[in-house]
Amino acid sequence: MSGHGLAIFTQYGKLLALLVGTMLFMALVVSPFIIFVYLHCNPYPLVLRCLRESGLTAFLTTQAGVNSGFMIVQYAAASMVSENKVYAHPASVDSIPSSANQEDIVSMGTTAARKAKMILQNTQDVLADELLTACQAIDIRRRLNTHGQGLTPLHEAIYQHVRKEVAFYEVDREIWPDIRAVEKMIRSGELLDIVKEYIPDFE
To answer: Are the C-beta atoms of 136 and 169 separated by less than 8 Å?
Structure first.
């Protein structure tokens, strides 16, 4: 290989290493973050326990008994958080020698990129489930009128934005359209636009 060709190959290798490293870093950082968020802010206490001291009802439904409420939302979020744990396994540790052992360390860059993409998608979906759950809890508190219902202007604006697209979950219905609607809000960046209206220097 000529000196020029070796230089090009070396630069390509550095670029590939940077890309793979970025994908692995994203997978290893984002997954623990969403697991932390889920464990500390997840719908579990809202769905599985009747938090009377918080002014909420079991399963976040006002008509218990024949309605499952937000149980399915919690199922969906839990499954995606667990899936992210699987995707966080570094792709690079499964390198297999190839090309007659000329390539003994394979970057697995494409695999790392696909896994990182799935982690990001799942994280956005879990955040959508969290926001949908929060709006349901806000409505229940306001309907029961037994606990504080106040929100900051920013949070009230986000709540109202969600409610323009998704109605209060009174009785069981197909909830996937509601989840998809809020997922679209998360991915489009429109919620960040609302945040910037109230916090202009937010980045």
So the answer is: yes
